[in-house]
Amino acid sequence: MLFPVSALMLCGTFVSWNPSKETTEEKKESRSKPNILFLFADDQRADALGCAGNTYIRTPNIDKLAENGVRFINCYVMGGHHGAISAPSRAMLMSGKNLFHVYDRLDGVHTMPMHFAENGYETFGTGKWHNGAKSFEASFQKGENVFLGGMADHYQVPCQNMGPDRKLGERVKKGFSTDLFADAAIGYLDSYARGKREKPFFCYVAFTAPHDPRSPRKDYIGMYPDGSIPLPGNFKALHPFEFDDLNIRDETLAPWPRTPEIIQESLSDYYALISHLDRRIGDIIETLKKYGLFDNTIIVYAADNGLAIGSHGLLGKQNLYEHSTKVPLIISGPGIPKNEVRDALVYLYDIFPTLADLCSLPAPEDVDGKDFVSVIKGKEKEVRSSLYTVYRNTVRAVRTDEWKLIRYPQRNYTQLFNLKQDPLEIDNLAALPENKTKVDEMVALLKKWYTLTNDTATMNPKTILPLEYDYKKLRQIPDKLQPEYILKKYFKGVDIKNIKKSEH
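Predicted structure:
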């Protein structure tokens, strides 16, 4: 087994690499393998892209990736065991494991960048790492502008650089998040291109946009005038029933009931963050082209989870509706078909074994993810016929090509949607007598997934909680990371001076 130039920490033990043992044939094979550029957005809905049919948002560079590759329209994050969904989502992505086999902990876990490093790749990471410093240091050989945490004021991101000892240094607050991470990636590619290029690279760029605070860079504020973005087709002023903590941090970013005006304002800022992200992705891709690296680089564009922003009366990702669990996924590069769309049901954690296959690396061991290269290349239509999502111990969902069932065990409540006829999940068909057989069928499928994934939730609690709630008891409390722009715009009725800002 080959190891990276710098020592690789596996299971707490450093193993040194001896360059004299690498044969000439191995060096040639390593150089012929494609590079990987992994672009990861934060809290981006799958429909918030021009290539997804959204005619209101401008994302020309990401759209071009879709033209040059394959776009998946049914890619999902499995969910999370707490409200900060990005932590388990990123742990699943990096480990190839389902939620109940990794949760949000990567210490001691064999990760995707480790696997690529062991097989002859140079690894670099920048941006958000929501899974602890030790796992970043064990996973990457190089790193710049690394943000350890869940969210930050986009204008003041505490970043760390990795030293020659593969340790992250002191935190320094720097400029705008999207620029920090894009510039770090471009700087790495500059350095790589001017070097010997003896190894292919694995470059991971994890943006914190468009995660809130919904405060775009100043020159992007107003790019989408307030009121110009239409409301989601499933907009509601309030969620029709209580299923978990409806006062969780994400839901406090606008008052209740949600008004059309404030949701449209939120979408304007959200879209501006994405368009800025798209612009900087274009800069990264131009850097690949400048150095002749583009044609041999597989580019992945994805996001850690979706977001409600007014859909179903919600703002966040702490639910199992399509807008919050479905994410964008585009893969382009050598050997990838161009301008094609796949509707196969895939998880983010399927990407690890898939990239390993695309790069002719050994298949990673002990992973739950499925290699979907055959789907990318059009040889197969699916890798699974159904898909399971979870949120805390309060919500479970299962979907097939056509149907989706959401079960709330603590409320003894069920929703059934026909996604072909009702993709916005508006009409709950569960209570209709003619659908009893379908409900029973989907519940049985949910139970199979429950067992298969080693789920730990209690599906038959002794106490059933009410569906009704009083929205007037919900309180809008800003956290300490919301800048002045956000406080003035979205917390108009809150006494900012006398309120203690919550921790994230």
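Summary: The chain has two domains: 8-19+27-384, 389-452.
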